[in-house]
Amino acid sequence: MNFSANVEKLRPSATIAVSTLARKLAAEGRDIINLSAGEPDFDTPGFISDAAIEGIRGGRTRYTPPAGLPELRAAIAERLSARAGRELSTEGVVVSAGAKQALFNAIFSLFGPGDEVLIAAPYWTTYPDLVTLARARPVEVFGSESRDFKVTPSDLDTAATDATRGLVINTPSNPTGAVYSLAELAEIAAWCRERDVRLLSDEIYGHIHHDEDVVAPGLLDLAAEELGPFVLIDGASKSFAMTGWRIGFSWTEPEVARKLTALQSQTTSNAATPSQMAALAAFSDVADADASRSAMGRAFRRRRDLVVERLRELLPDVPFVRPAGAFYLYFRVDGFFGDGVGDATAWCSSLLEEQGVALVPGAAFGDDRWVRLSFATSDEILEEAFQRISARVGAIR
Ligand code: PLP
């Protein structure tokens, strides 16, 4: 079958592929522990679901303007302005069907043939594919392992060319859980500003921050003068356990936001209206939002401590990133290669086959010596998973 040049390099999302296989094996009756999924295991907080149900009953079931319900855009702008300590216009907000669509809109609208887009690596699996869809060139930039892979201006210097138009960063990071400090973000923002490189900052895990009970540092904590052109990406999926509702948003200068809106108006029209009603509650009922996010945050922190402790105890020599945010543990498994297993993809397949544990191989994130374990599940399941992983490792030692 011949497909157009638009999609000839397109691959299905690697992380979704692993969790689909794990679900299939479970449906066939295998005892599978699926630690590959990128979603919280909590139910959406009741006050949010109730708002959607009331919306549906009240007839909020028609199209909305493409950029989102005006009251939702205003609520998001108010939250962003409160965070930044300066006014961020409502016109800059575009509500999308998930942060993924917000990223697609931004990348597709801002980059094209001949452009290079730097992607801080290891990266969330979708970024390079979105850049490729836009027919621009993704350029991976690895930070050093000793700095939990966070990139610095000198890392960026080594990858930049005259064609560099954009940089994508993600903090807290999927897959590493690393969190950029405000000083580190300021250096990156300055590097982009000086070169007129558009900075896309994906802060979807910002509220899942383990080391302090505050949101992780983000672009809006910088002064306006410190920032060049940027697009902030965020949403409701992770921090409000709303992955299936499909609500994300971007904030950027209104002129760009209008183009993102035009693209969306020709592709999906608008994020689902009942989901927007749910998001309106999430972004305007500050007290309930804070209470539910901190309850989930406490659970994630406890699980983070648990997986780090088990890894140190059961796989003592394995390099890993201690996650400061998000709900992933990224560790290196090349020490266990051998016997026909030469990369993390093969290692993960044999782990799934022999022990029924699904992890995501690092090929999805740019380095197939590492794997990602999602700890968005119960303590009991995590304990069992570590027993099985160490049994697999013990068997080949
Ligand atoms: N950005 C990152 C870093 C993610 O890990 C994900 C989902 O896994 C997304 C964006 C997509 O979020 P959404 O479900 O809102 O599209």
Average predicted local confidence, pLDDT: 95
**Percent helix range:** 40-55%
Series of H and E elements:
HEHHEHEHEHEHEEEHHHEEHEEEH
CATH topology of the largest domain: Aspartate Aminotransferase, domain 2
In percent, how much strand structure appears in the residues? 5-15%
Small molecules held by this entry: pyridoxal-5'-phosphate
Given helix and strand content, the structural type is alpha/beta
Q: Strand order, biggest sheet?
A: 2-8-7-6-5-3-4
What is the CATH C-level name of the largest domain?
Alpha Beta
Give a short account of the largest sheet. Answer: 7 strands, mixed
Unreliably modeled segments: none
Structure description:
The longest helix has 29 residues, at 286-314. The chain has helices spanning 14-27, 46-57, 70-84, 98-110, 126-133, 153-159, 182-195, 254-267, 273-284, 286-314, 344-355, 379-396; strands at 33-34, 93-96, 116-121, 137-142, 164-170, 198-202, 230-235, 248-251, 320-321, 328-332, 357-358, 360-361, 370-374. Helix 4 crosses helix 5. The protein has a seven-stranded mixed beta sheet with strand order 2-8-7-6-5-3-4, sandwiched between helices. The protein has a four-stranded antiparallel beta sheet with strand order 9-10-13-12. It has a two-stranded parallel ribbon with strand order 1-11. Helix content is 42%, strand content 14%. With 397 residues, it is of the alpha/beta class. It has two domains: 14-43 and 290-396, Aspartate Aminotransferase, domain 1, CATH 3.90.1150.10; 46-285, Type I PLP-dependent aspartate aminotransferase-like (Major domain) (Aspartate Aminotransferase, domain 2, 3-Layer(aba) Sandwich), CATH 3.40.640.10. The mean pLDDT is 95. It is built from twelve helices and 13 strands. The structure holds pyridoxal-5'-phosphate (PLP). The site of pyridoxal-5'-phosphate has 13 residues, from helix 4. Pyridoxal-5'-phosphate (PLP) is lined by residues 38, 98-100, 124, 170, 174, 202, 204, 235, 237, 243, 248.
